[in-house]
Amino acid sequence: MDNFMELKVNAVAENEAFVRNTVAAFCAEADPSAEMIGDIKTAVSEAISNCIVHAYKNKGGVAVIKATLSGGAVHIEITDNGGGIADIEKAREAYFTTDAAGERAGIGFTIMEAFMDELRVENNAAGGLSVFMDKKLA
To answer: What is the phi-psi region of residue 95: left when phi exceeds 0, alpha when psi lies from -120 to 50, beta otherwise?
Structure first.
């Protein structure tokens, strides 16, 4: 039987570790390796951090995190109600940043891609962005 979880949090830095660790704990049911758990935690951390920094500019807002264990894999979706991304393809290029004067390296999506088996990024019709990540656990 598939298992699922849904979490709604204020997208603030104080909740980044909570989200990362909650998704990792949920995945533990599938008995993944420590390396796989580390990969998931890293990717989720990047996704929720992007939501905090880019969607809500460190001012908070709603982030919804969904995860499903199915067929030996975890499927994760992180959604915000921010402004979305004008050019997703460009934003997924390594080192692309809209914050050149800040401390952003522009490698968040690159890291998510490296640690997960699949990554999809979509603007939502009602505004905001959804990041979909899949990883085989078996």
So the answer is: left
What pLDDT, on a 0 to 100 scale, did the predictor assign at position 41? Answer: 98
Q: Could you give the CA distance from residue 14 to residue 126 in angstroms, rounded to a whole number?
A: 27
How long a stretch of residues is the chain? Answer: 138
Q: Does domain 3-136 have CATH number 3.30.565.10?
A: yes
H-helix or E-strand containing 123? strand 118-123
Domain boundaries, the chain: 3-136
CA distance 12 to 1: 33
DSSP result, 24-87: HHHHGGG---HHHHHHHHHHHHHHHHHIIIIISTTS--EEEEEEEEETTEEEEEEEE-S---S-
| pTM summary value | 0.91
The reported pLDDT for the residue numbered 84 is: 86
Mean pLDDT by 10 residues, the chain (138 residues): 95 98 97 98 97 90 98 98 82 66 73 97 93 96
Active site positions, annotated: 46, 50, 104
Please give the single-letter amino acid code of residue 49: S
